[in-house]
Inverse folding.
């Protein structure tokens, strides 16, 4: 898994909150933001494109929604290694079921409170193993090291 | 004071000043270990966090063997002299500190042959004091943050759960709120006659959860855990290890509110112990969920009772009349928790004349229900005995006045006499909405209302009118819940959608008319706040 997180989110407020939350909890991870579902496929399939280790995907976006993006990405085995986390304020269980059926790794509720929002994102990134393997820089870069 | 002493004092001063800015143990190591290399003769400064395998260092690194050396020094103060000598270390000063409520640690300074052991020890102790205070502040900050997050979760979960009265949605929401904010997984078991049954399951990795639950052995262990918790709900919450492969432990919380046990929440944890919320918080969350589930159960129970009681206030079956088709429907308002006052009845007199009654008692609840039953039976019985509708309505009015009831009702009575060419209708209204007449092959018409509600004035005034129904025509009597159903923008069904609905129902049989009118009004309204009664009588086609 790479240290790049691809965030697909149309809401400016949520983009800002996600950037702030991950920047605080996992400053070592690189963040890249796409503001619509339609941008995902060209981004992933561009020649020589660096693939993200994890994609944080909003569900309800104008145009190509998160579920359509999910199905398209999961249809190509070249992207099997990308963890796809649906991050949504939707409370519809049917949508959650559809996302899992389409190959989502996680379906995470987007809280309103920022502290909770940050915790949810942080725990999600921790779970998928980014921190231990990516954030800690290799020995020798700092005077005090792990 | 020598320059060296002044520099060291400045270093210690800087460390103390920086303590407030530290936000993690990683930052702390960066702050406190490098200055220890300023101690004369120091070649390395190592920090070990107890109970974990975290090493921090400055200067000489504790390579693979050095880790063992460090652990030995931490435990006994002595270590492999060969490794130390090979790395130019002649002496090591060690200090350890415990951090109440947090992981303690050991710090050590490795000295070459030129170092002064006593001086190094003094300096190390001074730095350890700074470290201890920084860890205390970090722990306090983390505890405060944890509390804020738990408060926010409880508030948000409460909002989510209060927004629904449906038990299935409540179960889904509590599990979804918990994962991954406080746990990696959350299972909801609800009790039924056969014991706890898994009704909702959420995990940060749902594919893994699906695989775990597909393992009969794991599923059985979890179910046993839930059953044991339900059997002894007052026992302290249990934390069990080894139940679910790959999970550090599970925490079992009984869903219990108002003395009733509705099920069990099982939280699954894979995170560090420091990130696991206190058992009391899980208990509070489970209690909140139990209250929401209990509210849902009470609501459903009450609603079932209301619907059942409402059915008792209506005729069990409608009579079969030659030449006429009779149909009725009753829709209980969706937020209604008390028995409503709408009623209808159809009786056939000995001479074959049909009396159809519809009415609406003001208010809801037991009192209204009693009056509803009384009004229906009075009017039905008097009409069946052959009393004229006007006299039957007048008797009911007198009865209410005599009882001193403050309640009143509106009612409409249709007396239908069939003949070879159709049917004559005598319509009597006491403040009731006018009936509709659906003409065969023609637009619908509205009858007349009029009259005063029953129970208001000593002398009842009755609105009288006559209608003629031909073959295929249908008389529709209804209560105001039908016409006054409101859309979100405030418009009423009567104004905005009834004409179109009637047009669609042209030439439809009475059974279809009552069913579709009721459902159209229910769909139109943002909520079906009021009950809807519809009674339709159609004249058979030629």
């Amino acid at each position: 898994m790479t240290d790049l997180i691809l965030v697909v989110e149309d809401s400016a407020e949520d983009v800002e909150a996600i950037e702030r939350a991950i920047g605080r909890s996992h400053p070592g991870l690189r963040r890249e933001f796409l503001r619509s579902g339609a941008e995902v496929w060209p981004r992933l399939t561009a020649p020589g494109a660096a693939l993200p280790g994890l994609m944080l995907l909003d569900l309800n976006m104008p145009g190509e929604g998160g579920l359509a993006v999910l199905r398209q990405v999961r249809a190509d085995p070249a992207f099997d290694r990308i963890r796809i986390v649906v991050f949504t304020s939707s409370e519809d269980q049917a949508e959650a079921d559809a996302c899992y059926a389409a190959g989502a790794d996680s379906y995470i509720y987007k809280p309103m409170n920022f502290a909770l929002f940050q915790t949810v994102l942080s725990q999600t990134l921790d779970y998928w193993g980014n921190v231990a393997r990516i954030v800690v820089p290799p020995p020798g870069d700092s005077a005090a090291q792990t | 004071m020598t320059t060296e002493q002044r520099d060291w004092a400045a270093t210690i001063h800087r460390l103390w000043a920086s303590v407030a800015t530290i936000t993690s143990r990683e930052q702390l190591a960066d702050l406190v270990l490098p200055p220890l290399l300023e101690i004369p003769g120091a070649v390395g400064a190592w920090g070990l966090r107890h109970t974990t395998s975290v090493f921090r260092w400055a200067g000489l690194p504790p390579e693979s063997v050095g880790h063992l050396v460090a652990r030995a020094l931490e435990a006994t103060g002595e270590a492999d002299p060969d490794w130390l000598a090979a790395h130019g270390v002649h002496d090591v000063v060690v200090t350890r500190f415990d951090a109440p409520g947090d992981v303690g640690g050991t710090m050590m300074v490795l000295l070459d042959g030129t170092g002064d052991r006593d001086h190094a020890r003094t300096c190390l102790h001074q730095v350890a004091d700074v470290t201890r205070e920084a860890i205390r502040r970090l722990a306090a900050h983390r505890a405060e943050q944890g509390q804020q997050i738990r408060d926010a979760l409880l508030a948000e979960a409460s909002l989510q759960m209060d927004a629904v009265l449906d038990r299935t949605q409540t179960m889904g929401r509590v599990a979804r709120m918990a994962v991954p904010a406080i746990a990696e997984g959350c299972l909801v078991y609800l009790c039924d006659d056969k014991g706890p049954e898994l009704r909702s399951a959420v995990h940060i990795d749902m594919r893994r959860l699906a695989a775990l639950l597909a393992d009969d052995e794991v599923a059985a262990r979890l179910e046993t855990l839930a059953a044991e918790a339900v059997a002894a709900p007052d026992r302290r919450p249990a934390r069990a290890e080894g139940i679910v492969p790959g999970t550090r432990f599970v925490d079992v919380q009984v869903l219990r509110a108002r003395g009733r046990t509705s099920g069990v929440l099982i939280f699954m944890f894979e995170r560090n112990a420091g990130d696991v919320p206190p058992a009391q918080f899980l208990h509070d969350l489970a209690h909140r969920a139990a209250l929401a589930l209990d509210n849902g159960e009470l609501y459903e129970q009450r609603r079932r009772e209301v619907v059942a009681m409402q059915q008792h206030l209506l005729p069990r079956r409608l009579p079969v009349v030659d030449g006429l088709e009779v149909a009725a429907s009753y829709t209980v308002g969706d937020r209604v928790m008390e028995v409503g006052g709408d009623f209808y009845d159809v009786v056939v007199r000995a001479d074959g004349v049909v009396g159809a009654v519809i009415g609406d008692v003001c208010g809801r609840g037991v009192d209204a229900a009693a009056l509803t039953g009384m009004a229906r039976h009075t009017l039905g019985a008097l009409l069946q005995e052959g009393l004229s509708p006007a006299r039957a309505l007048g008797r009911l009015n007198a009865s209410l006045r005599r009882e001193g009831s403050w309640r009143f009702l509106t009612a409409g009575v249709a007396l239908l006499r069939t003949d070879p060419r159709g049917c004559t209708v005598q319509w009597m209204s006491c403040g009731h909405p006018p009936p509709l007449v659906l003409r065969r092959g023609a637009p619908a018409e509205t009858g007349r209302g009029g009259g005063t509600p029953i129970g208001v004035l000593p002398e009842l005034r009755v609105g009288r009118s006559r209608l003629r129904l031909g073959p295929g025509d249908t008389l529709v009597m209804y209560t105001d819940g039908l016409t006054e159903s409101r859309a979100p923008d405030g418009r009423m069904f009567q104004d905005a959608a009834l004409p179109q609905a009637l047009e669609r129902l042209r030439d439809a049989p009475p059974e279809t008319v009552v069913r579709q009118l009721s459902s159209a009004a229910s769909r139109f309204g943002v909520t079906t706040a009021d009950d809807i009664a519809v009674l339709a009588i159609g004249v058979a086609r030629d």
Q: What stands out?
A: Chain B touches chain A through 35 residues (CB under 8 Å). Chain B has three domains: 3-142, 164-307, 315-539. Residues 164-307 of chain B form a domain with the Beta-Lactamase fold (CATH 3.30.450.40).
